[in-house]
Amino acid sequence: MSEYASGSNITDSTPSMTECYENYVLVDVGANLTNKKYSRDLDSVVQRAKDAGVQKIMVTGASIRSSKEALRLTRIYPGNLYSTAGVHPHDAKSWQDPETLEELETIAKNPECVAIGECGLDYNKDFSEPIIQRSVFEKQVELACTLNKPLVIHERGAQADVLEILNRHTDQIPPVLIHSFIGTAEEAQIYLNHGYYLGLTGYVCKDKSDSGVRQLLEGGQISLDKILIETDAPFMYPNTRASKLPTHVKDALTERSTTFLQRYCTFQRNEPCALPAIVEMVAAFMHKTPEEVALATAFNALKIFGLNQ
Ligand SMILES: [Zn+2]
């Protein structure tokens, strides 16, 4: 606990660290900052993110309760935190007609709430019946169309059904982010063909397959204008020490980003200050500079979600 309790400012002790990202903003498009793991030291977490160059963070809503809480946090950190409002597929069974939709709409109408989601389908963990998941997902797709707010979609083992539901609304569909993408390069291509964006996380360290996210990045099959970067904190810790991580990717990590990672992030609790390390690794896989990736992905985030209030 003490590891997280300090509010120490990393830039005080390491002045060289201010140089790297100061000329542009990094945006974390998905952090679960309403998670109880942050209840004791959220100020420090947000400050560390800023020190790491992460100027804007979208706080994920995954239930009515967490969507309300995420909106509340945007009021405490205006211009810095934004929120999303949605009911996660795990929680689909909690949906009540018509109250849940009404509550979601009330939250989502606020300008600080910049997207509908997480919503979607998760067939890997059947916490809610697939038939209920589909109906709850479609109601949120309709809400996103009505409010014209982007969709943040969680999909695990359910691509065909996600696409089928989205395809029913193609006329009015807002921008779609497939958040925390961990599928195959082939699945990625299908999403990209639909014009959807992919959210990449610390999973780039974990992917050991030769047909997954790494291959997607290395093979040049995805262009920077379709990528968004997110920590999905406290989950998806980028384990930069993973043995399968190629040497050229490990070597691309700067002292600055690894210092934030090693001081403040663990498998138990990842933080938005891990974002620069993810940007650097994505850049290395794509044989681009981290500056290019940071600039392009931040631009995508600002374009899709607004984030200017
Ligand atoms: Zn998710």
Automatic annotation (TrEMBL):
Keywords: Cytoplasm, Exonuclease, Hydrolase, Magnesium, Metal-binding, Nuclease
Binding site for a divalent metal cation 2: H154, H179
Region forming the signal peptide: none
Keyword Phosphoprotein: no
Pfam (any one): TatD_DNase
Stored InterPro entries: Metal_Hydrolase (IPR032466), TatD-like (IPR001130), TatD-type_Hydrolase (IPR050891)
GO molecular function, one term: metal ion binding
Coiled coil regions in record: none
Binding site for a divalent metal cation 1: E118, D232
Family, similarity comment: Belongs to the metallo-dependent hydrolases superfamily. TatD-type hydrolase family.
Known role: Deoxyribonuclease which catalyzes (in vitro) the decatenation of kinetoplast DNA, which are circular DNA catenated to each other, producing linear DNA molecules. Plays an important role in chromosomal segregation and cell cycle progression during eye development probably via its DNA decatenation activity.
Designated name of the protein: Deoxyribonuclease TATDN1
Species the sequence originates in: Trichogramma kaykai
